[in-house]
Amino acid sequence: MGLIPKILKEVFKKTAEKPFTIHYPFVDIKPVEGYRGRIRWKVSGCIGCGMCATVCPANAIVMIPSERTKTKKEPQFIHYKCIFCGLCAEHCPTKVIELTQDYHLYGFNKEDIKIEVVE
Ligand code: SF4
Ligand code: SF4
């Protein structure tokens, strides 16, 4: 078989097959186990120790004044800077940070990308 017929055969074969891509965001996919997505932070368990900000390699957490913790400080997550390493969750002494499987992180501005705050 010549080259052109071979190519045409391949083109027709592939046209009939299901695409490998998905119609995101219209179709949801199930992330693999261990996937690290949007951060969930439980305010009530936070002691304001600042460990999360200390270990964050991307400087995506800064400690800001707060009346909600004993130390009068709480983390502010700059989520668009996050590289989803999970170190903040790993080192938080009260385990109030979790990296969820939510991968829907988009917006018109980088500031639109926010963590999930649980009271
Ligand atoms: S997951 Fe990593 S980069 Fe993102 S906020 Fe936590 S420590 Fe920083
Ligand atoms: S490490 Fe945990 S307890 Fe400490 S400031 Fe961060 S979120 Fe709060």
Low-confidence spans: pLDDT under 50, at least 5 residues?
A: none
Mean pLDDT: 95
CATH topology group = Alpha-Beta Plaits
Order of helices and strands: HEHEEHEE
Shape by Cα distribution: elongated
- Sheet with most strands: strand arrangement: 4-1-5
Q: What proportion strand? A: 15-25%
Instruction: Indicate the radius of gyration in whole angstroms.
Output: 22 Å
Distance between the termini: 68 Å
- Helix percent reads 10-25%
Total tally of structural domains: 1
How can the largest sheet be summarized? 3 strands, mixed
**How many β-strand runs?**
5
Query: What hetero molecules are bound to the protein chains?
Result: iron/sulfur cluster
CATH architecture: 2-Layer Sandwich
Q: What structural category characterises the helix and strand content? A: alpha+beta
What order do the helices and strands come in, and which of them pair?
Elements: H1 3-16, E1 39-42, H2 51-55, E2 61-65, E3 73-77, H3 87-91, E4 97-99, E5 116-118
Parallel strand pairs: 1-5
Antiparallel strand pairs: 1-4, 2-3
Bound molecules: iron/sulfur cluster (SF4) (2 copies).
Question: How is this structure best described in words?
Answer:
With 119 residues, the chain is of the alpha+beta class. The chain has a single domain, classed as Alpha-Beta Plaits (2-Layer Sandwich), CATH 3.30.70.3270. It is 20% helix and 17% strand. It has three helices and five strands; from the N terminus they run H-E-H-E-E-H-E-E. It has helices spanning 3-16, 51-55, 87-91; strands at 39-42, 61-65, 73-77, 97-99, 116-118. It has a three-stranded mixed sheet. A two-stranded antiparallel ribbon has the order 2-3. It starts with a helix and ends with a strand. The chain binds iron/sulfur cluster (2 copies). One iron/sulfur cluster (SF4) binds at residues 55-56, 58, 60-61, 77, 82-88. One iron/sulfur cluster binds at residues 55-56, 58, 60-61, 77, 82-88.
